Structures are given as structure tokens and as C-alpha cells.
Amino acid sequence: MFIDYAKILLKSGKGGDGAISFRREKYVPLGGPDGGDGGRGGNITFVVDTGITTLLDFKYKRKFVAEDGIKGGTTKCYGRDGENLFISVPMGTIIKEASTNKVIADLSHLDDKFVFLRGGKGGKGNCKFCTPTRQAPTFAEPGMPGEEMEIILELKLLADVGLLGFPNVGKSTFLSMTTKAKPKIANYHFTTLKPNLGVVGTDGTEPFVMADIPGIIEGASEGVGLGLQFLRHIERTRILIHIVDISGIEGRDPFDDFVKINEELNKYSVKLWDRPQIVVANKIDMLYDEAGFEDFERKVKELGVTKVFRMSAATREGVDDVIKEASRMLNEIPLTELEIPQEQMYIPEEKRFTYEITMEKGEEFDTYFVEGTFVDRLLQAVDVENPDSLRYFHKVLTNKGVLADLRAMGIKDEDTVKLNDFEFEYLL
């Protein structure tokens, strides 16, 4: 089963909590705090694996969670870091953010490795909060949560040559004649329901990879039929072999088919439309009137095509000429990376801990709301039920300038300050 699209949920590991512990030994009843730090949560990393050719594994497993960090121990022992989670994907996989459909990474090289989500930082043990005036802290820092994101994995095949053409024009037969690939071949529409890859290697030419991809119909660029599933897989190709059925035995006009497919390419991507094409008139052995080929050749050349190849994939007539031309063109066209427009790239938000203060008037006392990433981070790091931790909380508000900002806004005695769900009464 060929699967080239998957939506999955990823979550990196939570950091381990810092430990609250005090050294207790014989003859040392007040040895001081010795709680260790928690371990870092596991990262999630994508790795290219050439042994995988589809995204089938993600059809049955949709959620991937890295291991949490281990809690800190006594005697200043650090907790173990969570195991990193490595996810193998086929070469040519693109990672997109699900809600915006913007590209995060393109894994198109043999040794590509991408650290996608990082685990949460481990919390500090109570020994890290020891000061000359706070010699026995009874609080520690909890581990920070891991990152979570829903993503789309999209496979775009890595092929040098892509086969273009309406269904049933002979693309699969051509691939089977030139490679060891064994695509399903039959005389009905959409025999090819999945892309087929084959390596072409003939005497006097460098081997190259050719892809026979499901045929398209009008409206493919809008997703009609096999539409976008087809077009996605020819984005990385360097040249296209455009095969038309010159025999007309199905009542179709070869030139009309040629024009319609190029219109779909143009709608999908101008760069794809501009890609070099080798135009091939297939089923020449079934052509009863030579004037049909001459008329097609004349019309195509009027559009700027320099040569039209005559071919019968079934009898191998003209097949070698097409392969030699493809090899020649590949030698002249350099390898290029898949170009992704800047507006389609996902830009992660910068992790800056900030806050904003708003005020709401009351009949007797006003309420001040402190909100933002700084507040979220601070409330995660302290235990407001613990007196020692609460004093540390007050010190952080002072050092970061929150209390100074409140005074500048005119806060008065007994006004209320709210930080998310936690609130307290302000006293000078």
C-alpha cells in the first residue's frame, strides 16, 4: 500500500521535577538541602531512512511521545534525561505545520536528521535555591512541559524524470520496458493508482530514476481525480516525458490532451510548467493515418517544441531514442533543491518571556491583570502554597520589574493583582 500523506501528533518529553531533600547523617542533624535537579525531557528527531519508501507506518500510529525526564534525587543526584525519540521517514519527506500548512523542513538528502521538538528543561532541586538568608528552602522547581505540535508528513518522490500523460496512454508500459519495475498494466482508466519508480540503465547512458505517476484529468490542479496526489510527485523531477496517445482509438484528440495537461501544470506551478519536456507520440503502431501524426507534430512545434518522438512502448519502437534524449538532457541540467517560497515556510515564534498589565476599575478597589508567557513560566516554576516558594515568587516579581510597573500604573493598598488563576492583595 502506497501512502504519501499522514497527519500525526508529536509531543516531546516533560522535564523531571527538582527534588526537595535534606542531608541527614549521624551527628549531622542539620546537613542542609541536597535535592538534585530533574533530567531533561526527550527530544523528537526525524531521520531519513532509505529502507522506507512510503508513509505507511503513520497510517496505524498517529501519536508519538518522547520519554519524560526523571525526577531529581537525594544527595544532589541529577535525574536521568528522557530518551530521545527518533522517527524514521523516507527520503523526500516534507514536514508541515498542520494548522497553517506551512513547511517546517524538507528531508531530501541521505543523511538528513532534524531535531523537531525539544524536551522540557529539568527543574532545579532545592539545593539550588539555598542562599545565606534562606539556608533550608523547602521548595524545588518543577520540570518544564515538553513541546506539542500536530504536523503533516508529505512524501514527494525523488525522481530525475517524471512521466506525464492522461490515463491509459502507455506510461506504465513504457516504464516496464525500460526498467525492472512491474507496474500494473491494463486497458482501463487509472490502472496506476500509486506512483511507480524504476531505475533506467542502458548501454552508453548514465542510470537515472524515472517515475510513472497516476494520470491526471482536467481540474487536477484543484484536486479533481487523483489531482494533487499526482502533481506533488513531479515537483522534484528535472525533466518530464510527456506521452500522448497518437492513435486516437479512444476518441481523444492528442493535441487537445497535450494542451490540457500543460494547462493543469501551469495552474499548479509555473516552475513545473516551465520544466523541460520530451514530447512522445505513443502507440504509433496503431496509427492508421500518418496525417494524424503530422498534424499533431505541426501544432506542437508551433508552441515551441523542437522535436516530437515517435514511439510504440508495446513493440519497443523508438523507446531507446527517448531514453537517450532523456539521458542527454539530464547531463545538461544541474541538480537543484526543491524551491519553497518564503511565504510558505513556517517560522516558529521566538520564545521570549514577556508580560502585559491591564487594569479594571472597581467600586472600591481596582484589579490588575498580569498576563503573558512570563506569567505562565513563573507559575509553573513555583508552588504558591509553600511559604518559602512564595517568598521566592515575590523576589522574582521584584527583580523582573513587575511590582515597579504596577506602582507606576498607580496601584493602591488592597487592590487585587491577578496572574492567571492566582491572585493576591497588594500591600505596600
UniProtKB/TrEMBL annotation:
Residues 345-428 form the OCT domain. Its cofactor is Mg(2+). GO terms for cellular component: cytoplasm. Its EC number is 3.6.5.-. Keywords: Cytoplasm, GTP-binding, Hydrolase, Magnesium, Metal-binding, Nucleotide-binding. Residues 159-331 form the OBG-type G domain. SUPFAM superfamilies: Obg GTP-binding protein C-terminal domain, Obg GTP-binding protein N-terminal domain, P-loop containing nucleoside triphosphate hydrolases. GTP binds at residues 165-172, 190-194, 212-215, 282-285, 312-314. Mg(2+) binds at S172, T192. It is found in: Cytoplasm. Residues 1-158 form the Obg domain. PROSITE patterns: G_OBG, GTP1_OBG, OBG, OCT. GO terms for molecular function: GTP binding; GTPase activity; magnesium ion binding. GO terms for biological process: ribosome biogenesis. Belongs to the TRAFAC class OBG-HflX-like GTPase superfamily. OBG GTPase family. An essential GTPase which binds GTP, GDP and possibly (p)ppGpp with moderate affinity, with high nucleotide exchange rates and a fairly low GTP hydrolysis rate. Plays a role in control of the cell cycle, stress response, ribosome biogenesis and in those bacteria that undergo differentiation, in morphogenesis control. PANTHER family: DEVELOPMENTALLY REGULATED GTP-BINDING PROTEIN-RELATED, MITOCHONDRIAL RIBOSOME-ASSOCIATED GTPASE 2. Monomer. NCBIfam families: Obg_CgtA (TIGR02729), Obg_CgtA_exten (TIGR03595), PRK12296.1 (NF008954), PRK12297.1 (NF008955), PRK12299.1 (NF008956). This is GTPase Obg. It comes from Clostridium vincentii.
